[in-house]
Amino acid sequence: MSTSVGRPTPRAAATLAARVAAGESPLGRARRVGRILRALAVAYPDAHCELDFRTPLDLAVATILSAQCTDERVNQVTPGLFAAYPTAADYAGADRTELEERIRPTGFYRNKTNSLIGLGSAVVEKFGGELPNRLEDLVTLPGIGRKTANVILGNAFGIPGITVDTHFGRLVRRWGWTSEEDPVKVEHEIGELVPKRDWTIVSHYVIFHGRRVCHARKPACGACTLASDCPAFGTGPTDPAEAAKLVKGVERPHLLELAGLGDLAGDGR
């Protein structure tokens, strides 16, 4: 039983945590994963890639720029960048100083400039100027690892891919979906739990939740609609009023309403 919408009693939370730690049955985990996914779909019906782009190349560039930088800052830089460099050949032939200045606000701009020029050159030389749509090809390109490749495949080409970024890895471990730390192992294990057709949207759901509710240092446990299925419940404040202040984003009123805390939507940010 729960004390309120989505918030388990201390005893129920401890029982779930112990069950998961002891080795949850495959059926029990599958059912719990299914409930969490359904709740995430209700919480984030508009979940999407938060990097703005028009073409696969644009998304590759934006994802490279997003390293150690917020999507919001990247989206401020990319409109002018995409207009100035619409093709791989444009990046390959870019003036280094000019390109560095354009992307300076995203941080680590010298390394990112190396990646963008290298990316453009490799796409021109190896793929005729068109970004490839195969994982094994994408990961050969400068600045593109497996995570970035899956972002591109899922969002620019419509090919299902699981994006294991810091938010995704942290949450699926907190939820007891996996105990793996290696991103590739996480990707494969979660891929076995989630239907392939849903890999891309599930990545968005999890990343959205990590940015808005399940924060790294202080998750909003007491305002989380997944709490009754989360073995890490109590990592953050369980008091509803305190937790509600930690919920972020334009979805905040909706998320608090789902948690039965609509009257607290005016508090916090």
Automatic annotation (TrEMBL):
Q: Which SMART domains does its entry note?
A: ENDO3c, FES
Query: For this protein, what reaction is catalysed?
Result: 2'-deoxyribonucleotide-(2'-deoxyribose 5'-phosphate)-2'-deoxyribonucleotide-DNA = a 3'-end 2'-deoxyribonucleotide-(2,3-dehydro-2,3-deoxyribose 5'-phosphate)-DNA + a 5'-end 5'-phospho-2'-deoxyribonucleoside-DNA + H(+)
User: Gene3D superfamilies from the xrefs?
Assistant: Helix-hairpin-Helix base-excision DNA repair enzymes (C-terminal) (1.10.1670.10), Hypothetical protein, domain 2 (1.10.340.30)
Q: Which cofactor does it need?
A: [4Fe-4S] cluster
* Family that this chain belongs to: Belongs to the Nth/MutY family.
Q: What does this protein do?
A: DNA repair enzyme that has both DNA N-glycosylase activity and AP-lyase activity. The DNA N-glycosylase activity releases various damaged pyrimidines from DNA by cleaving the N-glycosidic bond, leaving an AP (apurinic/apyrimidinic) site. The AP-lyase activity cleaves the phosphodiester bond 3' to the AP site by a beta-elimination, leaving a 3'-terminal unsaturated sugar and a product with a terminal 5'-phosphate.
Write the protein's name.
Endonuclease III
Q: Which organism is it from?
A: Pseudonocardia endophytica
